Amino acid sequence: SIISTDHSANFLLAINLEETPRKTIKDPIAFEIPTRRCVYKYPYTYRQIRGMKHGAPCRLVDTLQTKSKKADEDLETFEDAEREIEQLRKRLNEARERASSLYVYGPDQDATEEELDELRWFVEQLLDSAKTFSGSTKARYQASQQLVPSDLAQHLTALELCAEATAQTMEEKQREQKRARTVRSDYLTDLDEVQSWIRQAELKVQDRSIEPIPLKEQLKQVQDELGTIIDKLERLTRNGRTIAENTRDDTEKQLIDSTVHSVTEQLNQVRNWLDERKQVIADTIDAWQRFLTLYEATKTWIEEKRQFLVEPLKLSTLVQARQRLHEYSSLGWRNRGSGVFVPISASSCVLLILAFGVALQIAVKSCKQINKNLSDMGKELESIGQVCSVGDLPEKLLEAEEAKVQVEGQLLERNALLQETSEEWEQCERKMKEVKTWIEKAKQSLESPQNKKKPLRDQHIIREKMLSDVAIQKTKIGISMEKLQVHFRSGIGGDSRIGETVDELLAELDNLHANVKEQTAALEACLAQIDQYQQEIQQLRQQIMQVEQQLRTVLSPTYLSTDKEKALQEQQ
């Protein structure tokens, strides 16, 4: 085999036996013949060459020529191997430079991955070629002489190191491309999720179509999701910074920076809105509760006043009248024990009606507080409507206003009716007292000695006037009672005792009327008899006067009668 240190040397085998070292080497392979810048390992010893017979040098020359030809072929193979190694190293270095300079952070990752796959396929082909060439070269030399030339071994080692470096660079570039794809994919995914969440969060935070309690739960859900979105924003910021640091597009870098800044500002704005909205919703829930409290108070007032208006006024006992007086004064309408029953008087009835009227006036005045409640409910409803949905609160407010107007109208109507009833009842009571007083005075007048001492005609005149007064008293009581009954029929329940009292008075008046009428008839008979007696007396008086006149005439001394008989008769 040939070991060369100069790739451009021309190998000319020149054997100079005189210059060959005179030594005997037991191993024939160890015998070396120095040549020009090379050593030829000759398989014969020096003594063997010296001891050759005539004709042996020719065979030796042929052998050496064959060996020289073989050496030329080996040298050419060596040089071809060196050139192939150099070419492979050059291509591997170019592939490594291409892989190192490959831009993997571009926006079109599919195109980048396709380009990287092509480069990887090309590098794999180069690596396979280098590996195949190195293996075949080593196998060829090891098969021929059990040893790879040191220079060639160094070149093969350098080729293997270059291939390994290229493969490592390719693997790093593939990992970088996968990382770039992951970074861009995570960036776009996180950006889409964060922006989508921000839009939904803005709609939820600014939502005014639901009531405050569901809105509070919705805000709590947004608050619970905020931590995850902040983590995604931090990852989005890191990935955006990585893309901006590795991108070659200045426009994309500015776009990423502005996008990350904008998303961060939007998220901070949503957080501020969320904090403000939570406080506003808490105040709105309080306003909602105040509205319901005022609504319940108004409904309670309406129900109490309806019960107040529906329950009739029944008068039967003085104890009950006093209890009702206390109940009406405190606007309470609970039925209590009545205790001992005693007949009720007209004054107690009037007192109860007056107490009921006072209670009703208090109820009417309490409408001012209910009006204030309704006004406050309207204000609370307006404040709630500026924040969220008011639900059925407007219907509740309208219902309360309509019920309040209805009850207030009934209270005012009942108040006017009670005032008129109390006035009529007072007037009826006063008239009944007047009638009772008049009856007592009339009876006393009829039975008094002074009246009996009066002339019959005066007594008759008094009784005639008394009969007329009885009719007037009956008419007065009847009209007053009829007016009172009209009010009773209008909604205030009166006890039958009042009618019985009036009937008793009317019965007394009837008895008085009958008694007076009887006395009047007796007096009329007496007066008629007296008149007859007076007429008879008058007639007798007239006759006496006539006789006396005639007597005076006859007894007069100057009386002269022409008719003696007639004169005698007159004197007689």
TrEMBL record:
<dbReference type="GO" id="GO:0005737">
    <property type="term" value="C:cytoplasm"/>
</dbReference>
<keyword id="KW-0175">Coiled coil</keyword>
<protein>
    <recommendedName>
        <fullName>KASH domain-containing protein</fullName>
    </recommendedName>
</protein>
<dbReference type="InterPro" id="IPR018159">
    <property type="entry name" value="Spectrin/alpha-actinin"/>
</dbReference>
<feature type="coiled-coil region">
    <location>
        <begin position="61"/>
        <end position="98"/>
    </location>
</feature>
<feature type="coiled-coil region">
    <location>
        <begin position="502"/>
        <end position="550"/>
    </location>
</feature>
